[in-house]
Every structure is written in C-alpha cells, then in structure tokens.
Specification:
By secondary structure, the chain is α/β, with parallel strands linked by helices. The protein has a single domain, classed as Vaccinia Virus protein VP39 (Rossmann fold, 3-Layer(aba) Sandwich), CATH 3.40.50. The protein is built from 7 helices and 7 strands. A 7-stranded mixed beta sheet has the order 3-2-1-4-5-7-6, sandwiched between helices. The chain is globular. It starts with 8 loop residues before the first helix and ends with a strand.
Length: 208
C-alpha cells in the first residue's frame, strides 16, 4: 500500500483537524477527544481511508480511530476529509508495533483490513494476527476482545484462523467469498479493486 514519498506530507497531515498529533497523551482517555462515552472502534492500517470514513458516516453512535504508519498514505485519507465534518472520526499516524503505548483498555472492536501478509515464514511475527500482536491487543480492549479481518490473501487468512483459535478466540462469522454472502460490508479501496478483478475476499470475525 505504500506510496512514493510526497514532499511536505508530514506537515500537511498535521494540519488536518482529524489527526491526533500526540496520541500518547490520551492513553486511557480517548473518550475525552470525542466528548462522549460511545464505543471506540479501531482500524489498524487505515490506508487511504475509504473504509473508516464510510463506517463513521454509517454509524454516528460509534467513535472510530484509524491508525496508519505511512505519511504518504494517511495523507490521502486527510485529503478526502477536507471540508467534511465527521465528529466521530480521528486518525493517528502511528506504527501498530507500539499500539499498547497509546491505548489502554478502551477499544471495543478492531478491524484488520488487507494487512501486509508478510509471506515469508521468518516474518510471521510481523503479521497483525500473529500471537505477538494478539498479545498487544489484549492490552487495548475495553472488555471482550472482538476482531474483524478481511484479506485477499488465502495464506494469511489460513494463518490467521489458526492463530485466533490457538489464542482462545471463537469464530462467530466467516466467509470464503464475502461479496457472494449476505453480510453488511463496507469496502476498502483495495477491496474494490480486488472484487473488480473477480478475486474472492476472505473475512473472519472473532471474539474471546
């Protein structure tokens, strides 16, 4: 998903009212940013923002936070939000490997959409559904852990199913071809591309 470096991207990002510039200052109290006690849903790897923007519009009674580690990508999301007022949406430019340093028992649901599959076995700990990351998520969930994953990568999907179950998650929803199933789905920009090419989208929803 990474784009070419864009000159001045970091400065442009920080000008957006949707960006939380110092997220560590809000650890354990992100509800103060939204000024309400509504559930907080987190998308890890927001990309260009289509999914989280449309989710926030569709569910005004839920607060959404999207994190993305690449300046050049999250910039696209902020550009889509120019001249739009969505009070239940915030973005953070951040690397998920340190996610527990900014959230503390306050996230109700996590979305993992088309994450990097890290196909080499020696890199499996970098996958966002590896045991190492599931342990990190334990520290940020408010109560019952709840994750929804979508991917076009069959190998990552199979790895994730095993990882979830081994870690104590229960599968509550699963699809081997999401767009042929009756599921209330909001697409990402990558998903639109894959579906147009006739590729299946894999989805799993788990709780622990």
């Amino acid at each position: 998903m990474r784009l070419k470096n864009i000159k001045g991207a970091k400065e442009k990002i920080n000008e957006s009212p949707y960006i939380i510039k110092h997220p560590e200052e809000y650890k354990g109290k992100f509800k103060t940013i939204f000024e309400n006690s509504n559930p907080i849903h987190l998308e890890i790897g927001t990309g260009k923002g289509d999914f989280i923007i449309n989710m926030a519009k569709k569910h005004p009674d839920i607060n959404f936070i999207g994190i993305e580690k690449f300046d050049s990508v999250i910039l696209r999301a902020t550009q889509k939000l120019e001249n739009i007022n969505i009070s239940n949406l915030k973005l953070i430019r951040f690397d998920a490997t340190e996610i527990e340093s900014i959230f503390d028992k306050e996230i109700d649901k996590v979305y993992l959409n088309f994450s990097d599959p890290w196909p080499k076995n020696r890199h499996e700990d970098r996958r966002l559904t590896s045991k190492r990351f599931l342990e990190r998520y334990d520290k940020i969930f408010k109560s019952k852990p709840h994750i929804i994953q979508k991917t076009d990568n069959r190998h990552l999907f199979e790895f994730s199913l095993i990882s979830f179950v081994n870690y104590g998650y229960q599968i509550i929803n699963i699809s081997l071809n999401l767009h042929e199933d009756d599921y209330d789905n909001v697409e990402t920009e990558y998903e639109q591309k894959f579906v147009s090419l006739g590729m299946p989208i894999y989805m799993v929803e788990v709780e622990k």
